[in-house]
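pinned: reference chain
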Amino acid sequence: MRFFNTIKVALRALRRNLLRSILTALGIIIGVASVIACVSIGNGAKLQVESSIASLGQNIVSVYPGNFTAGGVRGGSGSASTLTVDDALAIRGQVSGALNVSPDMRDRSQILANGLNWNSTIQGEDVNYLDIRIWAVASGSIFSDADVRSGAKVCVIGKTVADQLFQGMDPIGQTLRIRNIPFKVVGLLASKGFNYFGQDQDDVVIIPYTSHLKRIARRPYLNSITVQAASAEQMARVQQDITDLLQQRRNGKEPDFTVRNQQDLAEAATATATTMTWLLGATACVSLVVGGIGVMNIMLVSVTERTREIGIRLAVGARGNDVLRQFLLEAVALSSLGGIIGIVSGIGFSELIAYLQHWPVLISTFWVIVGFSVSAFIGIVFGFFPAYKAAQLDPIEALRYE
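pinned: its C-alpha cells
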C-alpha cells in the first residue's frame, strides 16, 4: 500500500508543475521519436534494396570473364572475353544443383519500327532466362528451344521499348529492326521498373543467344553466364563447383573468369543501408542522453525546491528509502511518459514521410520496445542521483531550509 501511495505523491508532484514536466519530457520525446523514425526509414531503405536485388532473380550465380594475368598485365572482372557457349553447356550438364543456365550476350544498339527509333539494350539469352529472372510475359510468349537452336530472328521486348516503338499498338507479331536485321516480336514482358543500380529493366530486347552471336555481336565469346541454383542452401556449393569445372576446362591455368553469387551482391548492397541505419540510430540516441541530462537537472531543481517538504516527511516518520523511491518514481514516470509519446510521434513521423515522399518505411517492434525500455532506463539512471541526494538530507537541516 505504501508503494501505491508513493506513486500517487510522485504523480501529484509532476502534475503540480505540469509545464515544467512537459518541457523536461520533451527531450525524451524527441530522442525516442528520432530513434524510431530513423531506424524505420533505414529499415525501409534496406527492404527496398533487398527487393530490388530479389527482382534480379532467385539463387543466382553469375560467371563473368576476366580476373586474369597475362604478360605481367592484370585484369579484373569483365576485362577479357573468354567465356564460351561450351562453358555454359558444360555447367548445365556437369554441375549438380544448377537448375537453369543461360549464356548471356549484351550490347546496346539502335532499333527501328514504325518509322520510330530507340536506343536499347539487346540481350541474347536462352529460353529459360525468364525463369531465372522470375519474369512474367504480359502477352505473347518467350521464344522456343527450336528458335534458340536455329538462331531465329525473333524477340521479346520490355514495356519501355513497346511504349517507344509501338505507341498504342499491340506489339505482338510486329517487326523491329536491329542493325537493319528484322526481328519478329513474339512476346511482351511484364513491367519490372528500375533495379538497384538505377537501370530501367523494361528497356530491353531479348533475342536467342545464338541469334545474338551470329547476327548482332558476331563474336564467339559471351558477356557472362547466369546460373540458377536449385536452392539458396546450394548456392555456395554450386559456385565452387562452377569454379572447379571451369578451372578444369582451362587445364589448370590461372583463372580467366570470376564467379559471384547473388548473396554476395545482396550483402554488399544492404551493408551500406545497414550502416546508415545504425549511424542514424546512434545519432538519435544522443538526443536521448541530452534528454536524460535534462531530467536529472530538473529533478535536482525539484529536490532543492522541496527541501522543506522532504524534511517534514522525514520528521513525521518517513524513511530515506521512501523519499528515494518517490523521486526515482517521478523521474521514471517522466521518462516513460516521454518514451510513450516519443514512440507514437516517431511512428507518426515515419508514416508521414512515407506518405509525402513515397519512401518505404519498416517500423520494427524490436526498436519500439528498445525505445520505451531506454527511456525508462534513462529515468532510473539520471533520476537516481537527485533521488539519492533527497534521501540523504538531514531532517533538521531540511526543516530550517528557506
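why pinned: The chain has two domains: 2-52+268-400, 81-255. The CA atoms of residues 52 and 198 lie 10 Å apart.
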